[in-house]
Write a structure and sequence with these properties.
This protein is mainly α and 72 residues long. It is built from 1 helix and no strands. It has one domain. 96% of the residues lie in helices and 0% in strands. It is rod-shaped and about 100 Å long.
Length: 72
């Protein structure tokens, strides 16, 4: 095998190994993105629930104060 052919073969082997590493990295990144998206959805849901609860507490306190002020 000529030196050029050997270098070309070595480069091909390195390229294939690099490609395999990139595929694994991409798969890992896809898992991370999916996890982040799921976490984000859960945060949005819990944030919405928290906002609803806070609004209920505010409304309750507002009406309670308003009712007390009306009695005065």
């Amino acid at each position: 095998m000529s030196r050029y052919a050997e270098q070309t073969q070595n480069q091909l082997v390195e390229l294939e190994a690099s490609h395999d590493r990139m595929k694994k990295l991409t798969a890992s990144m896809d898992k991370i993105v999916k996890t982040l998206q799921e976490g984000n959805a859960q945060l949005r849901k819990s944030s919405g629930e928290t906002n609803r609860r806070l609004n209920l507490v505010f409304e309750e306190q507002y009406h309670s104060k308003r009712d007390r002020d009306c009695l005065d």
